[in-house]
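Lab channel / #folding
Pinned by the channel admin:
"Please post every new chain as: sequence first, then the structure tokens as a reply. Keep commentary short and put observations after the output so the thread stays searchable."

First post following the new format, from NK:
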Amino acid sequence: MKWNLLAKSLIVVLALAIVAQPVSGQVTTAQTNSFAVGDGPEAVAYDGNNVWVANQFSDSVTKVRASDGAVLGTYSVGKRPVALAFDGTNIWVANYISDSVTRLRASTGATLGTFAAGDGPGGLLYDGANIWVANRNSNTVKKLSASTGAALGTYSVGARPIALASDGTNIWVTNNTGNSVTKLRASDGTNLGTFAVGKGPFGVACDGVNIWVANFFSRTVTKLATDGTVLGTFAVGDGPAGVTYAGSFIWVANNGSNTVSKIQVSNGAVVKTFSVGRSPYGVVYDGANLWVASSSSAAVSKISPANSLSAVP
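Reply from TO:
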């Protein structure tokens, strides 16, 4: 049953549609450098010094030094790792097929524990105290103690929850086949509302004031106020998936067009579009540069300097 559900997963279908070709060493184009990692990289996280990459088809995570892209280690986790989160000390990994999350010590890569999640964990978020897990196949979100891994609650959301973001008080969850986002109160998981967005919402991010949602099938991003009011919908590339906030900009990985869109927060205008590897999905900002997991290129791309308007190509 799980494999039938997995086959319907758009990201997985896209990733499997093209046989991944490994990148040998480093590839450099203008301000975009690419570094080889494992097979099918889907998610990325930053620990303050290094970038972590979840290699979904290698059942591993790779630790890459942010300064120069050097691989510092590759560590085995559960089956089909597809999401990552950093809690200030440790890296958390969502293992989609294993129905679990793994906690790794960021300094050494040592496994500190593996904890049960729901059916098909595919999204992770650290809110400053706890880990939130989006379970794609059970339409739930699970809250774990970051210090112990203990389950603190499980909350129903919409159909096929994919990604999560925090606005500082609440947790926002994209419901991929429900074409909506759900807002949960972080303190107790109370459902505060479900709000319509575009078709196939995937990634979600908060810019400190508003919520941004990448709508995969609509080729758009939706900007929401924290009360759920739609403030705007803006065109991007084909198949927008991962999204993150970096300084004054929203960055969107366009899975179908192999690009990343850089968007002005104030008005939704696309400032620039960057070519990256094939099937980009996860994106993360390291304080100066943007890192992108390109699933079908077995690589991560580094765009630098990410927020210099005058320097981008």
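NK: The chain is about 5% helix and 55% strand.
TO: also worth noting, Confidence is low (pLDDT under 50) at residues 1-29, 309-313.
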